[in-house]
Amino acid sequence: MGCHKNNHAHPCQHSSSTCSDSEFILHKYIDFPKLTCLNEKAENSCLKIFTRQPKSIIDAEFVESDADEALLFFIPFTGLVILKSIIIMGAGDLTEYPKTVKLYPNKEGLDFENVEDFEAAQTIDLVADVNGLVKYPINVCKFQNVWSLNLYFSHNFGAESTKISFIGLSGEFRQAKKDLGFTLYELNPNPSDHKLEGFGSFTPQLT
Fold this sequence. Notes:
Layout: E1 8-9, E2 12-13, E3 36-38, E4 63-64, E5 71-90, E6 100-105, E7 122-125, E8 134-137, E9 146-153, E10 163-176, H1 180-187
Parallel strand pairs: 1-7
Antiparallel strand pairs: 2-8, 3-5, 4-10, 5-8, 5-9, 5-10, 6-7, 6-9
């Protein structure tokens, strides 16, 4: 299947009102001790929105932005994953629901001062999803080898703060982190480590 160049996604409706545990299989591969959310009002409130299913959500439990409406998640994984779809549920008044999200795979060190300097791999226009029925498809071609993911929520539907009660990530797990270092090394090999017998080491010249 070919890759789509359009960075915007359109929502799809679930056929039922609940989601199976296996649908959010990527959650078990999140490196939770390293997961962060910039501008969250309550420290570590972001952790709980990845650890339950939509059917078990209590509206009183959510992550809320503090100084303004923006939230910036950094979600590291314990290995390489393929991201295929995402569900985002808001909380509180409908005006507090997130309106857009920008996705940045494998971009560490993002903050509110530099995030706009980078082009998002995908931007999704969100609807006010109350029950977790809206699944947003991901451009899989751009999310094949993901070891970390940033989610940038810049706007909501008009409130002073943004509230999110659940983020669901579905896809496939590819490779454990213990094998990841060698994989990344081989994607960017050092020419001096690859010697031709009888010729010694060499450094290719680019022309």
